[in-house]
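Before drawing any conclusions, I looked closely at one protein's amino acid sequence and its C-alpha cells, quoted below without any editing.
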Amino acid sequence: MKAVILAGGYATRLRPLTITRPKPLLPVLGKPLIHWLVESLGRAGVREVVVSVRYMSQQVKEALGNGDELGVSVSYVEESSPLGDAGPLKLVDEVVGLETTFLVVYGDVFTDVEIARLVELHRRSGAIATLTAVPVENPERYGILELGEDGRVVSFVEKPTYRPRSNLANAGIYVFEPEVLKYVERGRRQKIAVDLIPKILRTGPVYAYVHRGLWFDIGVPDDYLRANLAALGTYYPEGYVSRSAEVLGEVKGPVYVGSEAVVEEGSVLGPYTVILDGVRVGRGSLVRGSLVMRRTRIGSSTYVKDSIIGEDCSIGSWVRIESGTVIGDQVSVADEIFINRRNYILPYKELSDSIWREGEVIL
C-alpha cells in the first residue's frame, strides 16, 4: 500500500518557528514530526511513501532521504504552485500512480493512531473512503463528522459556525479508493474537507475510524508545545535524560533532556519540560513547562515558563520569559530582560530592551 504525506504548506500560523524550517520538521521530543509519521506508516506495513512538498522542500528531502533509514521507500512530488491538500493527489497519481487503495496523511498531525486498524476497518466496510475521527473539546476549530450507528459518516461540516451535534473531528488521516481521484481536478487548488469529501459522501459509502488516543493538529505554537509535553507524558512518564547529558541541577516531574545537554548546579527543570540536544541551562535558572530547541544557551538565574525557544539562541542571565512566548531561531536576548506573555520574536533578532506589553510581534 502507498501512503501520501501532505507536507507542502507554508504554516504561517506557526511563525516564527516555521520561518526557518517547514512544519513537518518541527521536532517532537527531538525527532522531526514527519519521522514520527513515516515510522507509524512503516509499522502498519506501508512500504512506499510519497511526500508532496513545496515550501522549503529541500529541507524535507534532506531529512527523509530515500527512506532507507526509516525502513520504507520515500519519493517526492513537488508542487509548482499551491494545490491545497486535495490538488496534490492528482499530481501524485500522475507521477507515481495510485491504482490501488492508498493512505493520505497530513504532515502536521502528531498521533498514535493505529493505522493498521484503520485500514482493516476500511477494507471490512467496503467504503470508498474511511476518515479518522477524534473527539475534541472545541469542534468549531475543525471539520466535524456525524456518524450513524454502524460508523458510516452521515454528515460532514468544515469548521461549523454553530454548535454541532457531534464533537468528532476530522483527524487528517484517510484511506481512499482510487475512484475518489475522479473528483479531483488537475492543476486546481482544492481542499479535501471542502471540495472532495462532500462529493464522495454523495456517491459512495464513507466510514470513520474513531481514535481516542494521542492526537494533535499542530496548527499554532500552543498546539505544538502541548504535543511535545503530551508526548513526554505518554512515552516517558518517568522522564528521559540522555546518557551523554550532564544534569547537576534538580529535575521535577517528567522532563526530556537531549544528548550533550548541560544543566548546571542550582537550576531546576520541570515539571513537563523538554530541552533538546546541546542545550545549556545556567546556574540557578528555572525552566518549566517549556520547549528549548537544540544548542540554545540559557544564562544564570533566568526564568522560562510555558514557552518555546528556538535553535541556537542565546538567552542572557537574570532574564524572565513569561507564558506563551515563542522565540525564533538564533535570537540573542541580553541580560536582565523581561519578556511579557504571548510575545513572538522572529529569528535573528538581538533583543536589548524588555517587552512590557503582551502579544507583540518583534520583527
In short: The helical segments are 33-43, 57-64, 87-96, 115-125, 192-201, 221-235. The chain has two domains: 2-220, 236-362. The first strand starts at residue 2 and ends at 7.
